[in-house]
Design goal:
Blueprint (H helix, E strand, L loop, with lengths): L15 H12 L5 E7 L5 E6 L5 H7 L9
Antiparallel strand pairs: 1-2
């Protein structure tokens, strides 16, 4: 689900502030480790980042605050 499609009216237009806050809450005071081996068509590294949680990005996607990269 894209952030703009969430039912929460406070996040219909721009979820960047909510996504930043959620990410900050998940990583605050923790060591973050990112591992990536692939690049997208723009040359950006595709990585999975974790703390004590196995995949921070997956948590943001499931909360509707980020998009999943799909080849």
């Amino acid at each position: 689900m894209r952030p703009s499609q969430r039912k929460d009216a406070s996040c219909r237009r721009d979820c960047s502030k909510a996504a930043i806050a959620a990410l900050a809450a998940r990583v605050e005071g923790k060591t973050v480790s990112c591992v990536g081996h692939e690049r997208d068509t723009y040359g950006r590294l595709i990585a999975r980042c974790s703390t004590d949680e196995p995949d921070i990005g997956a948590k943001l996607v499931s909360a509707g605050l980020a998009w999943a990269f799909v080849k």
